[in-house]
From TrEMBL:
Protein name per the record: Trehalose utilization protein ThuA
Top-level taxon of origin: Bacteria
InterPro entries given in the database record: Class_I_gatase-like, ThuA-like, Trehalose_catabolism_ThuA_prok
Residue ranges that the Swiss-Prot or TrEMBL entry lists as coiled coil: none
Residue span, ThuA-like domain: 3-218
Length: 241
């Protein structure tokens, strides 16, 4: 069983009627319902909870953390960011969605500005699978079409991804690296672009399938934690006849 925590600011849905109509109970609740499966157990956390809902106990019980943020990146406490970073380095998976590219935790783990072009115009997006053999692309067609989405365009200021799985094309002509993986320490990170708050992207079964696949891919490997520092010689291997 993979234990997942979906983190969402949960501010747009309370402050903007346009968003509330699409996600009346919050993006986190729609995601939690959409990705739950026999092997995936989901809970949620939001910005305004104590410690943003990301206490040490909660994070220690989380195999994969999903992060959606937009209007309140600066309100996330630096101590919580450090806590999440350490959990990733120790093996927790992290899936960063849409405007989470500008979150403190993603920028900290990437070490770059993570900026990009954007345009909110409800354009068609065609999300091409460019690495069909990757587990995150399992069960998908050649591309996913979203009739209305916010445009994100290159250049996306991130390090070169370990793996590139999706590339988006938009009606305005822009392209974007929309599905990228990275490793940091023992942890695996998946950035997935779609999911603007005024569009019903997270009700799309193919988008939910990508996130489910990402959860299974990012789950901790459970291998032994590497030993570092001053190290004594290993016991010699004896020859036995």
């Amino acid at each position: 069983m993979v234990k997942v925590t979906v983190w969402n600011e949960f501010l747009h849905e309370k402050q903007h009627e346009e968003v509330k109509k699409v996600y009346p109970d919050g993006i986190h609740q729609v995601l939690a319902k959409g990705i739950a499966a026999g092997d995936i157990e989901v809970s949620t956390a939001t910005l305004e909870e104590p410690e943003h809902g990301l206490t040490e106990d909660r994070l220690n019980e989380t195999d994969v953390l999903i992060w959606w943020g937009h209007m309140a990146h600066d309100q996330v406490d630096d101590a919580i960011v450090e806590r999440v970073q350490q959990r990733v380095l120790n093996g927790m998976g992290l899936i960063v969605l849409h405007s989470g590219h500008f979150s403190k935790i993603f920028k900290k783990l990437m070490g770059t500005g993570c900026d990009l072009k954007w345009r909110e115009a409800g354009e068609r997006e065609r999300l091409w699978v460019v690495n069909p053999a990757h587990p995150i692309a399992s069960g998908l067609p050649e591309y996913i079409t979203l009739e209305n989405e916010e445009m994100y365009g290159e250049h996306f200021d991130i390090p070169a991804p370990d793996e590139l799985i999706f590339v988006s094309w938009f009606e305005g002509g822009e392209v974007f690296r929309s599905g990228c993986t990275f490793s940091r320490g023992q942890g695996k990170i998946f950035y997935f672009r779609p999911g603007h708050e005024t569009y019903p992207t997270y009700y799309n079964p193919q988008i939910l399938q990508v996130i489910q696949n990402g959860i299974r891919w990012a789950a901790p490997s459970r291998t032994a934690v590497p030993v570092r520092g001053n190290h004594q010689p290993l016991e010699p291997i004896s020859n036995q006849s």
